[in-house]
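[Automated response] Your request has been received and processed.

Submitted sequence:
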Amino acid sequence: MEYVTLLNGIKMPMVGLGTWDLRGDEVTRAVLEAIDVGYRLIDTAQMYENEEAIGKAVKNSNVAREDLFITTKLHTPFRSYDLAKKGIEDSLKNLKTDYIDLMLIHGAYDEAEEMYRAFEQALETGKVRAIGISNFSIERYNKFIENCNIMPAVNQVDSHVYHPRHDLKEVLDKKGTVMEAWSCLTQKKRNISEEPVLKEIGEVHGKTPAQIALKYLVQQGIVVIPKTSHKERMIENIQLFDFMLNKDEMRRIDVLDEGKTLFEWTGH
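Generated structure:
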């Protein structure tokens, strides 16, 4: 596993397990299997309604809590300072942990700055180890950082080979905010396994098109959290660190950029 160092010196795995539509026993099993095959980053959110099941898996795994990196997020029911404080406590209880490694604001809400004050306090008291945002455009990010005391460690956004968002990455890099990609395999909105460029490059390296798509992001310093409940896919998705894409291969993948999101609700 490779790691990226966040602004405050904490190391975050470059590949994690997404859990956005997994529930109950299924997500508990998936997280346990992911940890067993080498995952250390687990991504969840209160919106996913699976924090308790993930907390059960973390507690029952054979890996020490300090060796895991747990991310969760607060969404619309927590859009105030007081509600965000309560949300943090709820997540700690649900996940059965004394601290959360990364807490994100789930969307670019008008109240995000107010919510973030609760995040900053939780960081100072050790309830969270890093704080950040999710689904913030360049414009909203620039406005947000003018009104916060602690720079967001992460901005988690939709990013994949058809919409890598190089412009956003450049802005975040200048401020030290790490870009993290949900939908890194497009959530089946594109058939990545049949993309000719990815197939051709994959054949050269002995890798699948999905592995090439993930490597394209990771090689640019973008953290990826592909979601799957299948152990064989988990193993495939994490095997990204025994090869490198050359400049020509990266340029060939660049051409896939459609310049727009596949998820209209994000607005960018």
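Summary generated for your ticket: The chain is about 40% helix and 15% strand. The chain has one domain: 3-189+221-229.
If you did not submit this request, please reply to this message.
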